[in-house]
């Protein structure tokens, strides 16, 4: 089941699980395509979660290998701004999800690389279980005509998000004291929405909604809503939500660590 150095789907279809014997014991593993940089391979992982994350990255590399010309065109013609790319590079880590080693977030790259990832994933992979050569080639053939149109739209959305984010951060720093409840609340919301790698890790349909949220934050700033009671009430609900996410992530991580097998 292990393959390496493939530049196209040159391996068997991948079952959800793979049974094998190691040192006289029977184990169940999880096959996945893996990204090898300039090629892909296939490996078996000890948990379904690890395999899913690796498989997604492997599929993305395989798509880039099959769509070299299109990827070059997208990156070259992507709406861009040097200031936006610099701001994206300096974004902080997610305050909750990045604390877990179980891989809640995919690793961020450059602005353009994360944009390319978002575009390819939303066009060819999202909502589809691609574990066979037929499914992979069918997705390529069926959705390739949509690629450039979505790339243009996604580029405009991401640029708008980063520009709004920059304006809001400057406005908060310029007009509010650091300890102002409104400033704290806005900065906390921004950190949860706009973080290192958010373009790569936010589904496209949800990404398209972010400008609306940012405009609502800008409206609050313009109106200078200093109603402390309202701000504290919203903060309490937000804190409760993220604490619940943190507890669930810890439970999942703990469960996975107890079900590992050795040697893979």
List keywords for this structure.
264 residues, alpha+beta, 4-stranded antiparallel β-sheet, disordered C terminus
Please tell me about this protein's structure:
The structure is a single chain. It contains eleven helices and four strands, in the order E-E-E-E-H-H-H-H-H-H-H-H-H-H-H. With 264 residues, the chain is α+β, with helices and mostly antiparallel strands. A hairpin with a 2-residue loop joins strand 2 and strand 3. Helix 6 packs parallel to helix 10. The longest helix is centred in the C-terminal third of the chain and has 31 residues. The protein is globular.
Quick structural gist:
With 264 residues, the chain is α+β, with helices and mostly antiparallel strands.
The fraction of residues in strands falls at 5-15%
Shape: globular
Radius of gyration in whole Å, from Cα? 21 Å
Provide a count of the helices: 11
What's the count of strands?
4
Helix content: 55-70%
Enumerate the strands of the largest sheet in spatial order, edge to edge or round the barrel. 1-4-3-2
**Mean pLDDT figure:** 85
The major β-sheet equals:
4 strands, antiparallel
Specify the structural class.
alpha+beta
- Succession of helices and strands: EEEEHHHHHHHHHHH
| Spans where pLDDT lies below 50 across 5 or more residues | 253-264
**Distance between the amino and carboxyl termini:** 13 Å
């Amino acid at each position: 089941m292990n393959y390496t150095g493939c530049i196209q789907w040159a391996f068997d279809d991948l079952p959800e699980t793979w049974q094998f014997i190691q040192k006289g014991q029977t184990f169940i593993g999880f096959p996945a395509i893996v990204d090898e940089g300039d090629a892909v391979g296939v490996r078996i992982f000890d948990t379904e979660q690890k395999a899913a994350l690796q498989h997604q990255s492997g599929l993305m590399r395989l798509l880039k290998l099959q769509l070299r010309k299109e990827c070059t065109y997208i990156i070259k013609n992507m709406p861009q701004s040097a200031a936006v790319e610099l701001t994206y590079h300096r974004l902080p880590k997610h305050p909750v999800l990045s604390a877990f080693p179980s891989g809640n977030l995919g690793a961020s790259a450059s602005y353009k690389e994360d944009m390319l990832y978002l575009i390819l994933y939303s066009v060819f992979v999202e909502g589809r279980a691609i574990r066979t050569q037929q499914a992979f080639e069918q997705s390529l053939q069926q959705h390739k005509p949509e690629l450039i149109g979505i790339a243009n739209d996604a580029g405009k959305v991401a640029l708008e998000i980063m520009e709004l984010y920059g304006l809001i951060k400057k406005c908060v720093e310029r007009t509010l004291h650091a300890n102002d409840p409104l400033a704290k609340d806005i900065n906390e919301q921004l950190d949860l929405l706009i973080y290192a790698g958010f373009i790569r890790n936010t589904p496209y349909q949800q990404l398209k909604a972010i400008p609306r949220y940012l405009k609502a934050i800008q409206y609050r700033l313009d109106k200078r809503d200093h109603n402390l009671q309202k701000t504290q009430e919203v903060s309490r609900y937000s804190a409760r939500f993220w604490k619940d996410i943190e507890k669930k992530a810890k439970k999942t991580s703990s469960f996975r660590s107890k079900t590992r097998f050795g040697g893979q």
